[in-house]
Write a structure and sequence with these properties.
452 residues; mainly alpha; 3 domains; two-stranded antiparallel ribbon
Length: 452
Amino acid sequence: MRYYSLYCWLLSEYDKFDKKLQITLHQYNYIRRAELAIALIMKDQGISGVVGSLFISQGKCKITERGVYNIKEGADYESKEKYWTFKSGALGQYYFGALSHYELVKIEEGRFYLRDKGKDLAEAFRNSVDEDIRELFLECIRDGNITEEEILEVQPLCLNRIPTKSDEWRYLNNLLLKKDDNSSFRRDTIFLMLNDISQGVRIQDFVRNRFLNLNVNIPASFGWYFYYLCENLHYCIDLFFSLILNKIHELQNPTMTLLSEDITETLMSVIDKDNKDKSLNELRMNVNERIDILYEEIRNKVGKQNYISAVADSIKLLGRLYTEFENNANTIEVFESENNLKHQRGIFSVGIKSYVKRYLNLPVSIFIKTLIRQIMEEHTIVAIAKMGTNNSDLRKFILEDGRLVLVEQRYPVETSPRISALFSLLQDMGYINNENKPTQIAKYFIENYGKE
């Protein structure tokens, strides 16, 4: 969280440099050196999400014979081996979007500028850190070097040392907890997360717990329920695609017919006898397991590389997901419309109709063959559409002379809801202590939530 105030302060200080120094030290390199210096300052803190930390942990920024870390060499964009390839550093690649959203920073003609709110946050940062420490840090950036002794001296700049209840803390706290607009469930999510943690829910179980404990009075609660359904659908299709690629390799450039027949025969051999001769609709009517349990079982099988059984189970999960949609179709589609999600490819209502509903009356074996072809066609369309003008072929397979050729194997992956990142922000702001328990600040927030 402190990156927000740190960047504002850094930009405000750069504006004070004389023109000669600005020409010598381009603003982007100034920011890049600061990011790498912060990574060095944070190297022994045990904190994740620090820009440049991998570069430091890999020993790529070493102490020279003069006893200094050459941050100029490891940071400046002109360097051969550098901590970050994006020209304007993590500020430009990751943080600018949020800083712009909060009206703190703008960019014009390739240069960052502070807005009035950013100037206020920069001043709040100054009030948190002694002037001598700030000046020493700026001197290290200008010189392009920092020593171990200087790293110890500037420790108050650590990202995890925001003075609680300081002007900086209050400003950042307001950014984090300001009331959600129509496109954000951040504040509601923070309430749900802190409340769940206070009841003993592990952070890695947050999304699953939110799916199982839907609270219709909190919009974000339904949002997480909806996210979990999308994630399940996405994972099932990704898993099917992974098997398709694996089989193309195993069968050594098969025809489309051979591939389809082989996958279908393989999956039908592990499907329950009671479901083999049934339609997809009859199969899904017999699925009574909870969605989250089915999903976890599939993920466990993938972890053990038991892909055939995992894909067979994903057919059951697809059926179970359709039943969930059938029972809640109106609520789900209203949510999608209100949050402008309908246009997104593969969004739940569209995806479940495309991959399941339209095939309900087909025998399971025919459904498998049809889904294989649909997934392969959709991958080709999307991959070609993403090529753009960079001439990169993103297809994982190609059809050549009537035979399928594997380009690249891939395995099912889960999307990232950035829950761990939010958890880290709450730690930064003192809502969660070192034992991952809610603090008094968090308890006060929970008790007064909705009373504003």
